Amino acid sequence: MPAGSTAAPSNSADNVSQPAPRKDPVRPTDDDARALGRQLLRGARSGALATLGRDGHPSSSLVSLATDSDGTPLILVSALSSHTGHLEADPRCSLLLAPGGKGDPLAHARITLKLVARRIARDGAEGERIRRRFLARQPKAALYVDFGDFSFFALDLQGASLNGGFGRAYELVPGDLLSDSAAASAIAAMEEGAVEHMNADHADAIRAYATGLLKAQDGDWRLTGLDPEGADLARGDAVLRLPFPAPVTDAASLRRTLVELAAAARPSP
């Protein structure tokens, strides 16, 4: 290089510091994430339903919930509600389930479900099952469930975003949250009779589930629902979810699981 000349600054990309690659916040889905997602879904009695308004703007509203035998969310809505009209015009929607707790609300688990709404016909086996399961979960809805302007919708699951607390994000698919369809159908066929039998003849076992396994306050707990993944219990407005150690698929495995849980719930002599 001649004397007195000055080297031009290099524009090479090698001399430009590159930002570090952004770490993907979504963790690989594992069994703990699936169990947490199912607990949030099966345990919810209400949620924030987001629909698309006719102007294309998102709108959210509070709805009461139950689940079908396989875990599909169920809602009962009035034709007078804006979200009913939204779902009729565009069935795409989402549902936020966030039970919360003490302290920072963002430290607690929540799940957003991506859904497509489907109106349920009142007549037929599906309509009867959904009405029964919804009222078991929401008994006060008996005041208006048969009004002519109220309809049931099943919210068919397309996917879900689970946040288990700070730094615990997961993307779930329907199979991570829903029960096997054959098992759900088998348990649904016997559910009503099994629930009646348990409440009539095994109230002590249900009470033991609540107090011994779920550490709930003692009282007149009743069984309100059964599905392949667990049992639903209620005492007044309080509800509990009892997950099964493993999914049940038929009457024999359901009976065996309930007996084993009752034995585990009672103190040893």
Describe this structure in words.
The protein is of the alpha+beta class and 269 residues long. 32% of the residues lie in helices and 28% in strands. The chain has seven helices and eleven strands. Strands 1, 2, 3, 4, 5, 6, 7 and 8 form an eight-stranded antiparallel β-sheet that branches. It has a three-stranded antiparallel β-sheet with strand order 9-10-11, with helices on both faces. Helix 5 (181-201) packs across helix 6 and helix 6 (203-213) crosses helix 7. The longest helix has 21 residues, at 181-201. The protein is globular and about 75 Å long. The N and C termini lie far apart (96 Å). The model has no long low-confidence stretch (mean pLDDT 92).
Give me a quick take on this structure:
32% of the residues lie in helices and 28% in strands.
